Amino acid sequence: MSGTTLKTESLPAARSAKTVNPFWYKIRRNPLTLLGLFLLLLILLLSIFAPLISPYEPTKINIPERFAQPSADHWFGTDEVGRDIFTRILYGARLSLGVGVAVVVGAGVIGTIIGAVSGYFGGRIDQLIMRLMDIILAFPALVLAMAIAATLGPNLQNAMLAIAIIKIPVYVRLARAETLALREKLFVKAAVTFGIPSWRIIVRHIIPNALSPVIIQVTLDIGDAILLVATLGFLGLGAQPPTPEWGAMISIGWKYLLDYWWYPTFPGLALFLASCGFNLIGDGIRDILDPKANRS
Amino acid sequence: MLLEIHNLSVEFESMQDRVKALQAVSFSIDEGEIVGIVGESGSGKSVTALSILGLLEKNAHISTGSISYKGKNLLSLSKKDWQSLRGKEIGMVFQEPMTALHPTMRIGDQLAEVIHRHRSISYKEAYRQAVASLAEVQINDPELVARKYPFELSGGMRQRVVIALAMSAPPDLLIADEPTTALDVTIQHEVLKLMQELAQKRGTSIMLITHDLGVVAQVCQRVVVMYAGEVVETGTTQEVLHSPCHPYTKALIGALPDLAEQGQPLLAIPGESPDLRNRPDGCVFAPRCSCSLPICREDHPVLEPAVSGSLTHQVSCWGRNQ
Ligand SMILES: Nc1ncnc2c1ncn2[C@@H]1O[C@H](COP(=O)(O)OP(=O)(O)OP(=O)(O)O)[C@@H](O)[C@H]1O
Ligand code: SF4
Ligand SMILES: [Mg+2]
């Protein structure tokens, strides 16, 4: 008995020393990942504190000051109805981050549930679900998202739904693959012998143990989702004016590029930096977690 | 009879071949009885257990036979019936206590989940009973252990938790598939005694699958000896261990000088296990049998009384009267 107590006392400490430190160690060693982290933090802080940083309102029209050049008053200038572009970018960051996270988390949750059910029961349900996912994956993502958004009608909610739909198959596949492995694990079979019903086994035994690849995928997908939201916005299939959405801003702004260069340039720069930040972090996480990438 | 398996044959189908894992297996277990299933690796012990619980893999196919539990044919149960049978009527303890528990769920919650399912009580009350059931399987400081994760427990403690889980309903039949093989010899003895006591207290029958004839001698009332997916000999522990009839049983026992000796694995018997894809027409043990007769290779022996008139002691061997 005393041997057992000894073991239990020392284990958690040993575990945390092993898992937490190398992660930070690796991040610190990779300057690009650090840069990504910095960009993400910057965007996060700017969007959280937007009302404190800027005295303007993102949608308030101020015709006398339209197309003002970048200045001390309007850092990034103003647009065709005199709105402060810097302010709109800050609020746009809020929207992009919020929408990106919401869409990907939503797709992750739904995809994981579908994948776990599909993998756990197998058979015909599984076949049907996987073929459906193959169909979604067979289309180029952007084209399918455009088609769905255009069919449902151009607004932000429909754009989010469209992006969620094209993101779901990845999570279904991930969760299904994990489930297939977990289903053969003894503790899942044992749970069956204890008389625990299938839905409960899926919810409490399969999904919690299948979650880590899903969570990684979520962090990798947020940047992509933000870019897609902006793309749909740019094409007029996403957020509609006067919503301060980066893609929509660029879409209107680029018509004025030659005369008022700042109008589309700054939202474009914001979008560029945000998607760079997410991609750098994504690559960093992949490097840390993927042993094959580690070896090279 | 609590459980009656009659003429059960199970085949595993794959792309290339068809493995006949069980061939006309018949035996029964009475209320409150502890029956040992012995046999070398690959003899079909686990397949038998999984058939009873309806947990065979999808590529398995039950070609003949019936399994009746309390008079109900288990092979014709619906999914819903299985759910209410598993855990509540028939429980199972697996060989590997290391992997039989949910790795990221606390012990107390795992037990409470199962108890909550079987008794109509609140989760809080189920948790209280979970702690009590840990005490019942002789775990010291059950409140503390209930808050731990499986990786924090030793193998012996984990197997006690698994037993508590399997016994929580409590079931009328407990299938224990080599429950002590993965444990230290001293802990093996304790865990076995614990199972025996719990079963006695609740009137639970046990189907005890083991490699260890010492274990059989210690706790079982009856024994079923399996070889290559067939029952080759069955009888009371006394009959099978002290006057074995089948050459395979004799070899098993001959390999074990002192029956009371604990933790002795079955000694290897010369020759290879038969190919389950192509079963011979005659006796499956013939290639390894020291006393095979001409008829052994032509005709398949069936279970018959070992000595005339014996109802309990049966053997499947042409040479039984020699
Ligand atoms: N899923 C499966 N697919 C194909 N064949 C299988 C499968 N499960 C078991 N078998 C076959 O059934 C035979 C019996 O296996 P079983 O696991 O019942 O043996 P056992 O008596 O439990 O052995 P052990 O003592 O090693 O646990 C084996 O020879 C094996 O080839
Ligand atoms: S039937 Fe023949 S071959 Fe088979 S065990 Fe008996 S004596 Fe040996
Ligand atoms: Mg086995």
TrEMBL record, chain B:
GO terms for molecular function: ATP binding; ATP hydrolysis activity. Keywords: ATP-binding, Cell inner membrane, Cell membrane, Membrane, Nucleotide-binding, Translocase, Transport. SMART domains: AAA (SM00382). It is found in: Cell membrane. Its main location: membrane. Pfam families: ABC_tran, oligo_HPY. GO terms for cellular component: plasma membrane. The keyword Translocase applies. This is ABC transporter ATP-binding protein. GO terms for biological process: peptide transport. It is a peripheral membrane protein. Residues 3-253 form the ABC transporter domain. Gene3D superfamilies: P-loop containing nucleotide triphosphate hydrolases. Belongs to the ABC transporter superfamily. PROSITE patterns: ABC_TRANSPORTER_1, ABC_TRANSPORTER_2.
